[in-house]
Amino acid sequence: MIWVNAIIQGIMVGGLYALFACGLSLLFGVMKVINLAHGDLAVVAAYLALGVIAITHVPAVWSFVLVVPIFAAIGYALQRTLLQAALNRGVLTTLLVTFGLSVVIENGLQQFFTANSHSLNIGSLVSDSFSIGSQITIAFLDLTILVLAVVVLLGLQYFLSVSKNGRRIRAVADDREAAQLSGIDYRHVFGIAAAIAFGTVALAGLAFGMYTQFDPTIGTDQLLLYAFEAVVIGGLGSLWGTLVGGILLGVAQQIGAQYHAADQILAGQLLFLIILVLRPQGITRRRETA
Amino acid sequence: MTAANSAAGASQGGPLLEVRDLSVHHGQLQALHGVNLSMPAGATHAMIGANGAGKSTLLRTIAGLHKPTSGAILLDGQDVSRLRPERRVLAGVALVPEGRRLFPSLTVQENLLVGTTSRRPGPWNLDRIYDLFSWMADRRGQRAAQLSGGEQQAVAIGRALAANPRLLLLDELSLGLAPVVVRRIYGLLPQLAEAGVTVLLVEQDVSQALAVASHVHCLLEGRITLDGAPAELTPGQIESAYFGIGANGKGLRSEQPILGTGPQAAGEAPGARA
To answer: What does the alpha-carbon distance between residue B209 and residue B157 come to, in Å, rounded to a whole number?
Structure first.
């Protein structure tokens, strides 16, 4: 029963990882940008929520109403300026620029908010739970985050496959030059993709801030790593892959933690390495034939 | 070709496309050397030349994918040389690129819908495109990657038409296609001309190009070496312009344009094919 519980808890936390990973996956899938500042951006969103809550006194749970649109706008603006300028100089330049952004963010956060940890206070919601049998306890917050992740991925899938802008995003991801020849301003489409990615990472950052404590460096120390692992396990550029990857990573970590608390992160990394060796294209993707 | 001509030319019988003294570099390499070209509205012109002569570069520069080093591209008297590719689509230029370049993960219909992005008004909509290619409507839900080469070429043409272009640039339509498919696709050109589309096509198959075009231009190493109506050109002229064989017939590559020296040039096989 202890193992069943570990698997269930792993699935719960996997939703959070998937939420982190889908923005990373989208940015890579559409513009081949590997965003090394992805984890830090999630942390910035959590700090931004602290500010929003302090100023407007909205309950922490509702801070996303302001934080997500602000982040989407920041994403669009950053893509049209800094990231586009980096892309124009080559894909590798984006690695350097996002790495630099990560350093700037972490130091900026330490400067303004100190290295102390914070969390988004959601009161008793953080500990409310229900039990199945005697040994399995499910926290409402964990379940909510998992449901949120599934809803976000479903929404994203729907947007990409049905809407006009979704179609343009897919066209640009397929062939940027052909998209230009069809009248698409790919820089605007990149901006839309970045806005979505930033919106999802803000949501992930808020969920993380309610789930546990955050500090200025946790973005790169943990979140970025988990997001990358989820993306690689699931399969690069596949939305459902990130959910599968996130859940497998979560389950591996929880099973590792059952052996020994110190093995939690190690178990996740081991799964990541095994997948990388045995199935580098990820769980959900077929091997490219072309 | 004079400036006065083109200034007065807008929509009054002046050339639809005018390329003036166009030079393009790929890094250190100069791909086009002062190319001049003029096309009246409604015409079908062909650009012939060997591999690497600069044909595709010329089309891609007209479509905005390469920046010219010098010179100008005028569409209906308006200088479009500084516009980004997507703005040129809006101005009425559409390129069917070499290798078709469909969006492989999108369906046939989605490919065509992406072609309508510029929302230029005109006669071409999805229904009319489905009329032009009778098989296409039934397979609109299929992914472009699953189509045969000829079908992909048809969708690529449809996607370009969906932008309602005034000038349609066709790059190597016949590449990698069976002769029967090539004939079918070239059979469409008269219908496009009837619909008022001006067509500039690049073709390595010279006999194919001569059959459909009212006017041919030959490019050799980035320079126009021949310019005229197919009926007025002798096979010898075309061959010497195509291969750069000088008037002395010694088979040396000539750096100079050889127009006018044609009659003396060696010309054994008509309808030269590269």
So the answer is: 17
